[in-house]
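Example 9 (inverse folding). The structure is encoded as follows.
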């Protein structure tokens, strides 16, 4: 399976009026996306920002959680260790290319419906070779068109059963990473739904669960 990288871009992104802007770094995005990256085996989580003051904020948060003297929550430190700051998308692509000795396959994400978007199933097949994959997510109202145009592929939006389509970026990252991994693990392309009682592995594990024998919390 391909080595997977993700990037959260704060510039260039769109605002509500469709103008190109720079957004501020969010503490929640730093922590929650790092935890998702650690859970799903992402090699590195890049946070792209052009403002030195915002980068300083990011580094201060990272340094706090990497302090070896912290007596609590080592899992958080483990997750935040995957974060890599970057000044631009081009710089992080060059860094990945140097590390992997080949240019990554670049896939951008959006909540909009655009032409020639690939499905999650197609993206899954692209991760089954030896070329690294870089998934790029945008803050604000999404990535600018020029970022999508420079990518190899644009992923279809995350959708539910209704018309509402306004996930936070940290939620969208978790959904995308889960679909890439658990469609393979739990066989959702083979007739199983997202409900745990329909997952064959979960059914097998539930037979040995401590709760079944009144040993665990309710």
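The amino acid assigned to each position is listed next.
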């Amino acid at each position: 399976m391909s080595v997977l990288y993700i990037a959260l871009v704060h510039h260039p992104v769109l605002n509500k009026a469709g103008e190109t802007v720079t957004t501020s770094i969010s503490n929640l995005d730093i922590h929650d996306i790092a935890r998702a990256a650690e859970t799903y085996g992402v090699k590195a989580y890049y946070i792209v920002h052009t403002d030195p003051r915002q980068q300083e904020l990011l580094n201060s948060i990272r340094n706090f959680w990497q302090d070896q003297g912290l007596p609590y929550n080592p899992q958080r430190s483990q997750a935040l260790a995957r974060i890599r700051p970057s000044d631009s998308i081009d710089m992080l692509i060059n860094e990945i290319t140097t590390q992997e000795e080949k240019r990554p396959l670049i896939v951008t994400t959006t909540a909009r419906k655009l032409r020639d978007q690939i499905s999650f199933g197609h993206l899954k097949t692209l991760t089954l070779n030896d070329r690294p994959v870089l998934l790029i997510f945008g803050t604000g109202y999404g990535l600018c068109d020029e970022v999508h145009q420079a990518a190899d592929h644009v992923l279809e939006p995350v959708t539910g059963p209704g018309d509402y389509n306004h996930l936070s970026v940290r939620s969208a990252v978790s959904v995308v990473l889960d679909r890439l991994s658990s469609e393979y693990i739990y066989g959702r392309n083979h007739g199983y739904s997202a409900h745990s009682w329909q997952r064959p592995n979960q059914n097998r594990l539930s037979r040995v669960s401590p709760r079944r024998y009144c040993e665990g919390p309710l």
